[in-house]
Write a structure and sequence with these properties.
Methane Monooxygenase Hydroxylase, Chain G, domain 1; Flavocytochrome C3, Chain A, domain 1; alpha+beta; globular; 4-stranded antiparallel beta sheet
Length: about 350
Amino acid sequence: MARDTVLATGGASGLYRHTTSPHPASGEGMMMAAELGAELMNLEFQQFHPTCLYDPEGVPFLISEAVRGEGGYLLGGDGQRFMPDIDPRAELAPRDIVARAIDGEMQRSGMDHVWLDIRHLGEEAIRHHFPTIHAHCASRGLDIARSPIPVVPAAHYSCGGVSTDLTGATTVPRLYAIGEVACTGLHGANRMASNSLLECLAFARGCARRLAEETAESGALLVERTPGTRPVSRELIAELREAMRGVMSAKVAIVRHDAGLDEAAGTLAGLSERLAPHLAEAAPDADAASLWHALRLARLTVACARARRESRGLHHNPDCPLHADATPTPSRIHLNALQMP
């Protein structure tokens, strides 16, 4: 048995319908830690990248912010720019402001996406500055030198996760977390671009130094578990996961409201109740286990969002004033906060 365990399992973007990763994690590592009693922190702060290629039938593909930096325009359903009316920095505003603006424009127009237009830059400049984006879009039948790019905000990075100290240690002895699964506090309520890469390097080194120290062997006993033999319906798993992603995307995403969070809490509890009876005698099943982890993490995320009575960073609730708490603190939660079915 390993003396220590390090989690490096990624974030929780898979709780949402649109993500920037082809195979997003759904917080499985966070919930494995929570099952052992680990504290989770800042789950309500989920970052959305403003511009993911909108293609429901294809794999996610990130359209870099450099495209807007080079002069790209965001266009609404009427073909007109909307960012200059929202922020003086227009398309160059911070990604959370741009993501909220796109979300608002989609709500206003009823469209599933907006447009990112760089045609005015000219084909030569587009091919020079964005060869990968140009080639990828071309492979999917889109010539971005002649047509605007359909884009949608997508879940990109989880600022919350398993609470750790500066060595990656969680609140569970001998359990460590590194990377997006962890919440070190470094990113606060809104991660700045690329800081997560530096965090991985710095905290991994600190964790390695801690693990290299001589410590006594663990006296913890292994927990025996006898799995069942009944398969869980593939159709049920797919249905419940899609329903979870739907409610999280509609009610617990870029803009939240009190009523929507209340509705999400009830819907997610109902989905958990539907899955729970199938797990007691279920045969080992990675998809079913992933869904069970995801549903409970989604419910904990909603609980944290409901508890924060202010708008701050990535948590934007128009029913709450901006920065209302003069001495803001991280949200902290444990698995026993749920009234489990």
